Amino acid sequence: MKKKNNLIWIIIILILLLIGIMFVYFNQNAEATNAESETTTSVKEVTVGTQTITKTLTSSGEIASNVTEELSLNTYRYFSEIYVSENDFVQEGDNILKYTNGKYLTAPYDLVVTNISVPDEGEKCTSAHSITVQSTEELTLSINIDETEISSLAVGQEVEIVANAFEDKAYNGTITKINQVGTYASNGSTFQGTVVFENDGDLKIGMSASCTITLEKAENVVAVPIEAVQTQGNTKYVIVKSEDGSTTNVTIETGLSNDAYVEVKNGLEGGETIQMIEETTSKSSSGIQGGRNQGEMMDKFQNGGDFQMPSMPTQSGMQGGNRE
User: Fold this and answer.
1) Class assignment of domain 140-215?
2) pTM for this entry
3) N or C: which end of the chain has fewer CB within 10 A?
4) Residue 80 and residue 98: Cα distance in Å, rounded?
5) Would you say domain 68-135 falls under CATH 2.40.50.100?
6) Spans of all domains in the chain
7) Which residues of the chain have pLDDT under 70?
């Protein structure tokens, strides 16, 4: 009986060892497959031309009213009836309330009512009574300005505004204020600016919008793709290809840039052919094949293919052991 128990334990240990070896093997193959990749280098040629390069500042925020005021009630008259509620939109000239003498308080412009304070019906109006309103004609948008860009902005500068609800049209605004005290942060201070613009009747107070401010603009200047500019120390250069096929590193002086192009102030005149080196990384076919082989091996292991599990001893086998 003792020999039989020992044989069973040996078989169990062999099975566990085999499972452990296969687990390590498959993991190593998976890591090798993920690590295998190929980097392809190609040379692209472009002709130097001219571009209009614009450097902009973008910001976003909530649309608010630029005019909030309290419409005072006539203190010589008695209140009769109110025609509006809070958050109602009222067009210019429409009646807001009625006095007992038949006169009305009307809206001086398109507005939204935000608060109502009136006496009881038939009571005299006092200086404590008013209708608080916000204009929907003149709107405002607050913008955040980075400290590195504040010197490029000034009161009176034009701003293009696009509301998220109406992305197909733009509104023209003007910077009316730039705070002189900024808000400090470890990654840089910001200053708040105010942009004022006119409503065409579609915008509502509380909508979200983004704005674009042109900081600098260079029109029809010699420019090259940003990827074409190489750097060595403090020197910038491009690879210029001659008619005979040879190449030369030409030092350039750069100027204004955007996401795609950079202005070339000196070094190029336009019309030259320059080269850009592009690198593309992709998984290699061997890595894919390795992954496929790994899957096949796992299938064989699970289905009892090339990797055979040790057979448990039969009853007769165990009895034979006992007879020895």
Assistant:
1) mainly beta
2) 0.64
3) C
4) 5
5) yes
6) 2-36+284-323, 43-49+219-281, 68-135, 140-215
7) 1-5, 23-37, 281-324
